[in-house]
Amino acid sequence: MTDPLPTGATIGILGGGQLGRMLSVAASRLGLKTHIFEPQANPPAGEVADAVTTAAYEDTEALGAFAKSVDVITYEFENIPTTALDLIETLKPIRPGREALRISQDRMTEKEFLQSLGLKVAPFADIPDDTALTAAMDSIGAPSILKTRRFGYDGKGQARIKTPSEAAAAFASMAGAPAVLEGFVNFSHEVSVIAARSASGDVACFDPGENVHRNGILHTTTIPARLSPSLRTDAILIAANILNALDYVGVLGVELFVTPEGLIVNEIAPRVHNSGHWTQNGCAVDQFEQHIRAVAGWPLGDGKRHSDVVMENLIGTDMDRVPKLAQTPNVALHLYGKAEVKTGRKMGHFNIIATG
Amino acid sequence: MTDPLPTGATIGILGGGQLGRMLSVAASRLGLKTHIFEPQANPPAGEVADAVTTAAYEDTEALGAFAKSVDVITYEFENIPTTALDLIETLKPIRPGREALRISQDRMTEKEFLQSLGLKVAPFADIPDDTALTAAMDSIGAPSILKTRRFGYDGKGQARIKTPSEAAAAFASMAGAPAVLEGFVNFSHEVSVIAARSASGDVACFDPGENVHRNGILHTTTIPARLSPSLRTDAILIAANILNALDYVGVLGVELFVTPEGLIVNEIAPRVHNSGHWTQNGCAVDQFEQHIRAVAGWPLGDGKRHSDVVMENLIGTDMDRVPKLAQTPNVALHLYGKAEVKTGRKMGHFNIIATG
Question: What is the distance between the alpha carbons of residues A228 and B284, in angstroms, rounded to a whole number?
Answer without folding.
Answer: 29
